[in-house]
């Protein structure tokens, strides 16, 4: 077994444990490379099936190609897709692009709050109808007790301290100073009613591992990651367009991205360097304590 | 750094030691000196320190949480990634404060090798010993010891040698033999990656070379097949009719077409196929550490928690009573008689502790025999599970001998099975409720026409025999009741009920196990007791009248 085989096996075991232990299980799908690898690993774990819904939090500021790709893949692979959104904040223009609030507050409103309301089923949410090919209101917004998330330890400081099975309190808060122990491959899978758990199968994967795995498995990935033939830029990390910058790159294929990360210009530059919200004081840790993914 | 074309091996190494002996500083400096930090990271931390009027610390590279930086202490293990010419590393920087021992364990439990730091200035402290002991308990055999902060003792060889002698002696008592002893200064970077002119008396390897000399643990292909069943899938979407037994191979090798045996039932079947997604043709065999799934040729009831093995291989231990070493982390002490959940392999079963033989302080290594295992202590205990499970003993298998104990909702301890126990005993317990009557027992006897009496049956099928006996006694006109006292989980409750019925003057018939008799009769001693493997209604009727 090489490094990728080991990572794959460990992640698959985590998926199976989550599926065994949580009756109301869902998986966050951000359309990016990590959660698309996550989706692939789910199909590995369940032999071609994805036996739980995918959850997408649509901030309405996602790059439009992402939404188009999302719906196409969900229809093609027969996935159950649930979409949540903070429609109040959008309707009242309480967002950063509207100039009303700062980046961190905007992330909290459009992502954290929307995620929390979608997970506990208290906010309206939508489900992709495979007959109609479009989103329809979710008639039964049941709360999720387990949510699979594609966070990686190498992304930033607070994620480097995550547990594989990470409990969240009643208000989705993360008590970093008091995390449960994980012995060998035994995780915390017993929870008080009312709490839920974030499950992180990708913690031990690096950005390079993700691309090497995409290369090995030929996983279809959204075009935004590749520099177009006549272009000079690509996205290294996907988010909302007002806060996510493309990077200068000549990589047009998965092979070229792998080379760029191993030995090329990005070998020593952090992946999230194009994500503006990380740079504000407190940054991701503040967001993540309140339930950010 | 040599770029690699294909992914090379990766090793998890945990950094442990007493609080303030420099673990995060060491790890931060190692990352910085080996070029593992992203561009600008070091500068950003220097800038942060300047604006917050703090001296620059390499530890800030790892102590990423606001609380950690504010207190200057690592709270939780961080994973950091770096590579040498030889391999990729995941460095797990574990906290040294006793308060965060559970976080240290979480970090160390996934490591293949450990680096233990001791401050040359402070010498061996409580957690230097405790962490050393934890490593041996967790099964981490490769350990290197770094004597840090040599710059603060003028790079003195005698300080280094004296710590080495004393700590080396301690490690030898717990069976740990370090692969290297390196004098370093993490802050100055001495002996981390390159040579140093500060300690000409040291001619050994640098830390990075010591790490590269750690060897990768071999997969357990040579051990008997152990394939714990994690789940059984029957997904019907797209006309899929496969019934797939899924799990991760722990040891041995299984091939398509081979016979298997399922524990604890010992039923046999044959592998039809090894199933996989996006793999053509399907794999012909599967080995250790692979997450996999199989279909079998016969309809067999297999459930999560079962262990699949191969006929002819040494069998696992199937039982419900085991002697074990447990390391306790719980908020409440580990006590006898309380119902916990045991997780081992993929099995999850209710359990009780029926004996505590000894308790060891994990730092001082002093032993005593109290009635409970406190937080941060190691106990040698006897565990009884609610139903039989298949496990291995630590002498036979390093992995399938591991377990954790869940107290309410939390993993509160972890341990290793050391022996199979044939004759479970039950600790003494107290009545849960008492009766509250002023009616004299003699008046009750006069009304029923017989004495109150407890009949304990201990033979084979004692429970059903007790039922039959009670029914016959009832038909003979006696006032009776039947209870089952064969499970250690309900023993205190059942005995309390029996006490109430006996107080009401009834004849109570209970099926139980021989080893529970002493505990039951101790609690019910005011009443007459008849203990036998089996008995007849005539004999009992005669006994109570």
Question: If you had to describe this structure to a student in words, what would you say it looks like?
Answer:
Chain A has 293 residues and is an alpha/beta fold. Chain A has 2 domains: 3-205 and 278-289, Rossmann fold (3-Layer(aba) Sandwich); 207-277, no CATH class. Chain A is 32% helix and 12% strand. Chain A has helices at residues 3-21, 33-45, 64-76, 87-91, 103-119, 207-217, 254-262, 283-289, and strands spanning 25-28, 54-57, 81-84, 126-129, 134-137, 146-148, 165-168, 196-199, 233-234, 247-248. Chain B folds into 4 domains: 10-213, Rossmann fold, CATH 3.40.50.300; 227-309, Translation factors (Elongation Factor Tu (Ef-tu), domain 3, Beta Barrel), CATH 2.40.30.10; 317-420, Beta Barrel (Elongation Factor Tu (Ef-tu), domain 3), CATH 2.40.30.10; 441-544, P-loop containing nucleotide triphosphate hydrolases (Rossmann fold). Helices cover 23% and strands 30% of the residues of chain B. Chain B has helices at 23-33, 41-51, 66-71, 101-108, 126-138, 157-173, 207-213, 441-448, 462-475, 491-503, 517-523, 537-544; strands at residues 10-17, 78-83, 88-93, 113-119, 142-148, 180-183, 227-228, 231-233, 244-248, 254-255, 259-263, 267-275, 285-286, 291-296, 307-309, 317-328, 334-335, 340-344, 347-361, 367-368, 372-373, 377-391, 402-407, 410-420, 453-457, 480-485, 507-512, 529-532. In chain B, strands 7-15-11-12-14-9-8 form a 7-stranded antiparallel β-sheet, with no helix packed on it. In chain B, strands 2-3-1-4-5-6 form a 6-stranded mixed β-sheet, sandwiched between helices. Chain B is globular and about 95 Å long. Mean pLDDT of chain B is 89; it is low at 1-7. At the A-B interface, helix 1, helix 2 and helix 6 of A face strand 2, helix 4, strand 9, strand 23 and strand 24 of B.
Tags for this entry?
heterodimer; A: 293 residues; alpha/beta; Rossmann fold; two-stranded antiparallel sheet; 8 helices; 32% helix; B: 545 residues; Elongation Factor Tu (Ef-tu), domain 3; 6-stranded mixed sheet; 12 helices; 23% helix
């Amino acid at each position: 077994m090489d490094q990728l085989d080991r990572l794959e096996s460990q992640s698959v075991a985590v998926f199976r444990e989550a599926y065994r232990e949580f009756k109301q299980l869902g998986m966050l799908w951000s359309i990016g490379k990590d959660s698309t690898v996550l989706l692939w690993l789910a199909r590995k774990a369940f032999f071609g099936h994805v036996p739980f819904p995918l959850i997408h939090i649509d901030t309405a500021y996602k790059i439009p190609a992402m939404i188009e790709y999302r719906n196409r893949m969900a229809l093609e692979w027969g996935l159950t897709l649930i979409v949540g959104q903070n429609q109040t904040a959008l309707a009242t223009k309480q967002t950063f692009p509207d100039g009303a609030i700062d980046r961190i507050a905007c992330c909290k409103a459009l992502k954290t709050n929307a995620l929390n309301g979608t997970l506990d089923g208290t906010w309206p949410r939508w489900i992709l109808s495979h007959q109609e090919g479009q989103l329809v209101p979710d008639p039964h917004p049941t709360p999720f007790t387990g949510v699979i998330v594609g966070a990686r330890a190498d992304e930033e400081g607070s994620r480097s301290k995550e547990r594989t099975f990470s409990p969240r309190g009643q208000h989705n808060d993360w008590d970093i100073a008091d995390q449960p122990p994980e012995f060998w491959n035994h995780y915390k899978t017993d929870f008080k009613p009312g709490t839920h758990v974030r499950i992180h199968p990708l913690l031990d994967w690096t950005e390079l591992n993700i691309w090497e795995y995409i290369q090995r498995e030929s996983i279809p990935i959204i075009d935004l990651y590749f520099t177009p033939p006549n272009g000079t830029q690509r996205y290294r990390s996907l988010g909302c367009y007002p806060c996510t910058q493309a990077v200068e790159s000549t990589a047009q294929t998965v092979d070229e991205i792998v080379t760029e990360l191993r030995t090329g210009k990005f070998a020593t530059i952090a992946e999230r360097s194009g994500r503006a919200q990380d740079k504000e004081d407190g940054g991701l840790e503040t967001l993540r304590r309140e339930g950010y993914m | 750094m040599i770029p690699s074309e294909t992914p090379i091996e990766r090793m998890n190494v945990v950094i442990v030691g007493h609080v303030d002996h420099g673990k995060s500083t060491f790890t931060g400096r190692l990352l910085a000196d080996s070029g593992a930090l992203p561009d600008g990271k070091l500068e950003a931390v220097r800038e942060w320190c300047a604006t917050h009027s703090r001296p620059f610390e390499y530890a800030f590279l790892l102590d990423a949480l606001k609380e950690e930086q504010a207190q200057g202490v690592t709270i939780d293990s961080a994973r950091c990634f770096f590579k040498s010419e030889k391999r990729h590393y995941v460095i797990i920087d574990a906290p040294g404060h006793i308060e965060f021992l559970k976080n240290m364990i979480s970090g160390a439990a996934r490591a293949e090798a450990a680096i233990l730091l001791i401050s040359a200035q402070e010498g061996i402290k409580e957690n230097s010993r405790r962490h050393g002991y934890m490593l041996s308990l967790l099964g981490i055999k490769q350990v290197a010891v770094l004597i840090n902060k040599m710059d603060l003792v003028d790079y003195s060889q005698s300080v280094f040698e004296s710590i080495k002698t004393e700590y080396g002696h301690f490690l030898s008592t717990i069976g740990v033999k370090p692969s290297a002893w390196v004098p370093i200064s993490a802050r100055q970077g001495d002996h981390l990656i390159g040579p140093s002119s500060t300690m000409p008396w040291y001619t050994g390897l640098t830390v990075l070379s010591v790490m590269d000399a750690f060897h990768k643990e071999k997969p357990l292909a040579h051990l008997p097949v152990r394939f714990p069943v994690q789940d059984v899938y029957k997904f019907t979407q797209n006309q899929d009719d496969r019934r797939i037994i899924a799990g991760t191979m722990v040891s041995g090798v299984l091939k398509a077409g081979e016979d298997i045996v399922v524990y604890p039932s010992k039923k046999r079947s044959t592998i039809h196929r090894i199933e996989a997604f996006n793999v053509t043709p399907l794999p012909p065999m599967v080995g250790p550490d692979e997450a996999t799934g199989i279909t079998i040729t016969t309809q067999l009831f297999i459930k999560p928690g079962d262990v699949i093995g191969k006929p002819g291989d040494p069998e696992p231990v199937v039982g419900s009573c085991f002697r074990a070493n447990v390391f306790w982390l719980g908020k409440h002490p580990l006590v006898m008689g309380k119902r916990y959940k045991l997780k081992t392999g993929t099995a999850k079963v209710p359990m009780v502790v029926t004996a505590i033989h000894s308790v060891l302080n994990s730092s001082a290594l002093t032993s005593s025999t109290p009635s409970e295992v406190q937080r941060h202590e190691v106990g040698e205990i006897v565990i009884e599970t609610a139903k039989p499970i298949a496990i291995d003993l630590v002498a036979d298998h390093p992995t399938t001998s591991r377990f954790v104990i869940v107290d309410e909702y939390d993993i509160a301890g972890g341990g290793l099975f050391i022996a199979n126990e044939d004759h479970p005993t039950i600790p003494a317990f107290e009545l849960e409720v008492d009766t509250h009557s002023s009616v004299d027992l003699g008046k009750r006897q006069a009304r029923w026409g017989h004495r109150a009496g407890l009949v304990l049956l201990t033979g084979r099928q004692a429970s059903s025999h007790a039922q039959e006996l009670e029914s016959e006694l009832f038909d003979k006109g006696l006032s009776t009741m039947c209870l089952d006292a064969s499970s250690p989980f309900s023993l205190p409750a059942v005995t309390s009920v029996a006490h109430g019925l006996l107080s009401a003057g009834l004849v109570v018939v209970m099926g139980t196990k021989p080893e529970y008799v002493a505990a039951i009769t101790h609690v019910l001693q005011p009443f007459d007791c008849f203990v036998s493997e089996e008995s007849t209604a005539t004999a009992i009727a005669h006994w109570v009248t």
